Amino acid sequence: MYRVLIAVVLLAGLATTGAAASEAVIGETITLAGSAAGADRVYLFMIGPNLDRAGVALHDPTLRAAAGQFTEVQVRSSGRWEYRWNTGRAGLDPATYTIFAVNQPRDRHNLHGATYKTIPVTLRSAALTLETGVEKTGSLQVTVEPWGARVEIDGGYAGETPLAIQLPTGGYAVDISCEGYDPFGMNVTIYEGKTTSIIRTLTPVPEPAPLPPETIPETPEAAGWGAALLGAALCIGYRMKP
Description:
1 helix, five-stranded mixed beta sheet, single chain, 2 domains, Immunoglobulin-like, elongated
């Protein structure tokens, strides 16, 4: 929310009034800030149309300063204080109000001996506009094989194919994916009263080529045993010959 900064300074032993007026739209947050050397707290109240003449609290106009009810703000060790006033919560009418910042819990009629500062604030109504136009829409038709492919529009899940969806006019990023197939994406434009179509057959992910059969090389030991066995077979055959 937009903020309006109002500087309010409390000087010990000096009471000043008549600061320049500030304006804000009802609902905006006004930041009241200043210094109050030597004080622990600052007591805020305001006066204005339809409010108690002795003053009311800023955060709740039903709380009366004459009854000891204020908007209290803690003063920091640096001597500075700050209060953010949400004008939309007070239920105030458009008008000019005078804000009092006092170093003691005193209402408007009992400020003798207190240090205080006043500043006028004018609250205005927000400008009112009425939009009578109807949102312009069009259609998106997604026909993709295989059916059941996931469709995302601008990064958000929109459904599965085949998909027909109504969208406001404008540009969109469409992404389509399905397990076992290469994903596909494109940008489309939706026009008022018209249907934009995407017709596509997804490409299967190619299967990896099979690995060649592994050939185990013959070891020297195996080769020696083979020769020995062959020699033994020849020898036996020779002796058995009649």
